[in-house]
Amino acid sequence: MPASQALPLASTHALVQALNIEFMLYAKVNGSLQLLHTNVLDPADPGFHFYGWTYLYDWVLGRREVISFQGDVGRLNLLSDYQLPLAQQVQASNLAANLVLYFRAGVQYVTCMMLLVSAVAVGYMLRAPTCFQGGNLFKLNRVGGLVWVGRPLLFLRSATAICLLCTSGVDLRFSGYLSFFQVEPAPWYKVLLAAWEVSWFVAVVDDILLVATQEYAAYFVFPNLLLVCVVVAILSGASPVAVALHVAPQCVHAAMDFTVVCESADIAIGDMNRFGTLLLLMGTCHIVSYSIAKRVVGPKPSSPVHSLLLSLGARYHFNHTGRIVHGVYYLDRASAALNGILTFKLESTMYAFDIKLWRFFAAPIRSAVDVPGLDQATLNASFSLVE
């Protein structure tokens, strides 16, 4: 061993010995009961040091404990026995319930965030009632939701709706004499609500495919959304998921002469085939809508804005008419909020915080004399983006 390593090992050995970690046992010596204890690294027994270090290694890994007993005449630092890690399997019955709780929390978070974004946008609208692009506010889901909430949580929300549409309602009833299952079809308004919630999935898919659809998106995303909701609602209302019951009593000896596990029947309230059918329908509607829009529109139009501060959804879904002057895009504050840009005005400067980049920006408020086509009130309620 190199001399440079010998000193640290020796000093470490001395420090551990100074901790005086010991073994302890009771023994009878000449008929009298005595308490015997010795250091794990007893200097008088160097042959045991290797085994002592293995005990201390278990202590480092948390498989043993060192407990200090302090009394009036002394102290004992004792090493415990080897303790196997406690492995306890999660009950299968709790998995679904816990998963539903997490899903519900995610859905509630999405709802609260969308309400918050809506409130912020409405606040900017009230500050300047005639100086905003009203059509942009209908892009709350496709722009505001994807910017403020994100694709994973929106996908989670849509997945809960799809799961509801693929599940049959079954209640356990008791008549006073016997218990039985009763199928409860979902009310029509719940079917419509769940079908509309699928629109979140459509929005996520459309946003991912914007790199390919680009300017065509503005022409087919809304018809595609309506088509998907109508098709899903008709399918779920006309052909609801049926309960599948398979009666096959069987018993298995889990432990001989101790435990017998019996299963009387299997009840399936969900349908994976319906899940796949809904995904296939949504994909088909997207392809059909895109193909029709591409054929009707013809050559792909060119987007008039190219600012890097705009999300891809805002670039292709927002209405930019009358907002671009001399290569500068004057984005109204309500639309900017949906795009993740929070603005506040101080004197003649508009300050902005972009949550996408986590950065502050500042832009001077231009005079109406220098910006033909826009009045001063509109300029005071806009954030200028250089193309």
Biggest beta-sheet profile? 4 strands, mixed
- The ordered string of helix (H) and strand (E) elements is HEEHEEHHHEEHHHHEEHHEEHEEEHE
Overall, the morphology is flat
Portion in helices: 40-55%
| pLDDT < 50 runs, ≥5 residues | none
Mean pLDDT: 86
Gyration radius, in Å:
35 Å
Total number of domains: 3
Strand composition percent: 15-25%
Q: Number of DSSP strands? A: 14
Structural class, from secondary structure content? alpha+beta
Order of strands, main sheet, comes to 2-1-4-3
- How many helix segments? 13
How far is the N terminus from the C terminus? 68 Å
Keywords: Membrane, Transmembrane, Transmembrane helix
In a few lines, what is going on in this structure?
With 387 residues, this protein is α+β, with helices and mostly antiparallel strands.
Describe the structure.
Helix 3 packs across helix 4, helix 5 runs antiparallel to helix 6 and helix 5 (151-165) packs across helix 7 (199-208). The protein has helices at 3-19, 49-60, 92-127, 140-148, 151-165, 188-197, 199-208, 210-213, 217-238, 272-297, 312-317, 333-338, 376-380, and strands spanning 21-29, 32-39, 66-70, 75-79, 170-174, 179-183, 244-255, 259-268, 324-325, 328-332, 341-346, 349-354, 359-364, 382-386. Strand 11 (341-346) and strand 12 form a beta hairpin. The mean pLDDT is 86. The protein is flat and about 110 Å long. The strands form five sheets. The chain has a four-stranded mixed sheet. The chain starts with a helix and ends with a strand. It has 13 helices and 14 strands. The chain is α+β, with helices and mostly antiparallel strands and 387 residues long. The chain folds into three domains: 9-79, no CATH class; 96-297, no CATH class; 312-385, no CATH class.
